[in-house]
Amino acid sequence: MSQKSVDQCCDIITKKIGPQRPETALILGSGLGDFANHITDPCSIDYGLLPGFPAAGVAGHQGRLHLGSVGSSKVAVLQGRAHYYEHGRPAEMKIAVRTLAALGCETLILTNAAGSLNPAAGPGSVMLLTDHINFTGVSPLFNEHGVERFVDLVDAYDPLIRTRLLELANGLDITLHQGVYMWFCGPHFETPAEIRAARLLGADAVGMSTVPEVILARQAGMRVAGLSIITNYAAGMDAEKLSHQHTMKNAGLATDSLSRLLTAYLA
Q1: Which of 204, 242, 248, 252 holds its CA 20 to 30 A away from the CA of 152?
Q2: What are the angstrom distances between the C-alpha of 74 and each of 2, 11, 224, 266?
């Protein structure tokens, strides 16, 4: 059923965009949907028209696929994602990611909003992900068969892309922190005790997304990069009350920096 849905999605998209093929895909996290405005000559398709694409169920996730160009790059931009906590299914992004790969995207850039465990990376910072810790214990590849389900995640976050992004950030005078992202299932925020455990395990940021897409993209042979907008310090690190409204408000503090960095990379 998965491959049939991917084929159907590719047929629908191809009829819309003709022979051009995207090379780079982006998935935009909470509060980052406005980056889609940087696309020139866009063709937009609602997720609801693409079989197997997720329904947009969280504020800040518009649920739309945009295809076009940013700079010299042909791009496919997913304006919003599904989260494990919405349905209890870690594979909700499977059709979407596999469709991107089938369309010809060789690189997937993932963005998200995250909480920081690094005192130097406060709200409004941008963090380049170097690795992740899957604290949920679940996988989007559950119930799959064959050797393809055994995915190598060494250097899952492509070292060459990371080097290029660091170079560009330096040239743009953007402070780009680096760190390990820990995936919690949500939708509740973490406890201070969980954050202390996360720090001991080597995490620098925590969030409720991204890791399933990384696993799916690496299975498909795509190169991956991950960028977090830091919207808050993690639980117990300051007196700020955590909420999704707070996340959305603070996401705007770093959208300009992240947009400039992504535009420079794609150009």
Answers
A1: 204
A2: 25, 18, 16, 9
